Amino acid sequence: MAVSMADITKLRKMTGAGMMDCKNALTEAEGDFDKAMKIIREKGKAVAAKRSDREAAEGCVLAKVADGFGAIIALKCETDFVAKNKDFVALTQDILNAALANKPASKEELLATALADGRTIQEHITDRIGVTGEKMELGAYEFINGASTISYIHPGNKLATIVAFNQADVEHQMARDVAMQVAAMNPISVRPDEVPQHIIDQELEIAKDKARQAGKPENLLDRIAQGSLQKYYKENTLLQQEFIKDAKMSIEQYLHTANKELTVVSFKRITLNVD
Q: What is the CATH number of the domain that holds 11?
């Protein structure tokens, strides 16, 4: 049967698929839109299975906060061309909005969450795979809670951070400065007592080896290693890091210029870049 341009355009708006894919689906479905949409979705599943072993190293990272809850989403694909496509970015935003609205406890729960049309996020991702012909996946989902929260998205949508504070109504610029600090300096934790033990052990061993190679006495190695560990904390834990806008103070000291009790509760950072 002949398929009209109006029908092709309508199906394309409904699915985001290409003109020829829409035309072929409508022809196969004999003009039945429900059947045509099913054909396009089945194509997405087929492409997803075929490209499952491909690397999805590009993508879009977005973050947002609302009512003390903050979330970051990384939707991944194969090429930067697809990552910058407005429909791909819009899907990432839809997933992020669903995370804020539903507050899922895991990536799996988020994938099973329904969007406005009643279909799950995983189904929408599969649909986009059929449209673009590229592997796509929800690469990461992180969230935090706090008395107040802030998000920061670095230009290019490849890096984003969220930060939670212990007090409400933190001045916006101060909160944004801390979120940008997390983006720029990639701290491992908020404070030293949150650094994983295996990292502490590794840093102590590295410091001892360096001191030993430098000819330092064996009885001084532990003291030297502890000194190196304190330097590691200063460089890699958020509150002890030098403030990137003013190296004369740490992040903790910067926060205390507003309130001596103000501190960071938690943060999350997701990037598609190589740190």
A: 1.10.8.10
pLDDT in tens, 84-119: 999 999 999 999 999 999 999 999 999 999 999 898
Count of domains in the chain?
2
268 φ, ψ (degrees, to nearest 5):
-135, 145
Residue 22 in any domain: the answer is yes
Q: 173-192, pLDDT tens digit by residue? A: 999 999 999 999 999 999 99
DSSP 26-47: HHHTTT-HHHHHHHHHHHHHHH
Q: What range does the domain containing 18 cover?
A: 5-50
If phi > 0 it is left, if psi is from -120 to 50 it is alpha, else beta; for residue 186 that is: left
Whichever domain contains 125, its CATH number is 3.30.479.20
Helix extents (H) in 139-220: 172-185, 197-213
pTM for this one?
Answer: 0.81
